[in-house]
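Many introductory courses stop at the sequence. We go one step further.
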Amino acid sequence: MEHKAGFVNIVGNPNVGKSTLMNLMVGERISIITSKAQTTRHRIMGIVNTPEYQIVFSDTPGVLAPKYKLQESMLNFSEGALVDADVLIYVTDVVEDPSKNADYLAKVAKESVPVLLVINKIDLVKEQSQLEELTKKWQEMLPKAEIFPVSAKENFNVANLMNRIVELLPVSPPFFGKDALTDKPARFFVTEIIREKILLNYEKEIPYSVEVIVEKFEEKENAIHIMAVIYVERDSQKGIIIGHKGSMIKKVGMEARKDIEKFFGKSVYLELFVKVEPNWRNRENKLKSFGYLE
C-alpha cells in the first residue's frame, strides 16, 4: 500500500469549535481551547502519524473583519489556509448564521480541493428537522462540499470524518519526521498555555492586549526552569494582571505550571513577569518581534 500524506487546513468563524475538533483528531491538546473568540492567533500544525499516512493539520484564527494590524495578520493566516491545503475543513455550528462572512465563503466555494463542511455542536439540536434544514442551506452555499454533522464535545461522528480525510489524502512520502507531533517549538506551547490561563482568568479586553514571550527555557533531565514575560499595553492593565498583592499573577502561574508539567511530563519552575509595551498591537516592529509578521 502506498504511503499518503497531506495538509488539512481547518477554517471557519471564531467560537465554532475548530480547536476542539483538531485536538480530537490529533489526540493531543495542541491548540488552546477557550470559550472566548480569537484565541488561535497563529496557524498551528498538529501532525497525525500512522505507518500508512501522515496528516498535517493546521488550525487557523477565526475569520473576522480586521480592526487593527494584529487582526490583519490573523486574517492573512486564514486566507493563506485556502492556498496550500490538500483538504479543506470548514467548521460551522448549529447556532451560527450560515450567511455570516459571505466573502470568505465565496472563496471557499471556488476551491478546487475537496471541502468537508463540518456542522459542529449537533448535541444542541432538539429536532432532526432543524439539522436537515441547516444541511440544505449549507449545501446551497457550498454545493461541492461534503457535509459532516458532528459533536466534537461528545466525540460524535468524528471518526467518520477522520476516515474520509484519510481517503482524500494524496499519495506522498511524509513531510515531517514520523515522530513529530507538531512543527512548533516547546516554547510555543508554554506561551499558549499561559495565554489560555490569562483568557480564562481576566475579563474584557485584557486578554486581547496581552502577549507572552518565553525568555528562558532551561530543560534538565527531570525539571524545566521557565521565565516568561507578559506584555500589556498600559500601566492599568499591568495592575490588573498582577492583582491585589500579586494574587492574580500567582493564580495564573499556578494553573499554567500544572498544565505545562502535564504537557512535558516534568516538574516545572515557572517565573512570570509583567512589562508594559505601549500600543504593541499596532506597531510593526513589535508585531515582527512577536512573530505575527514575516
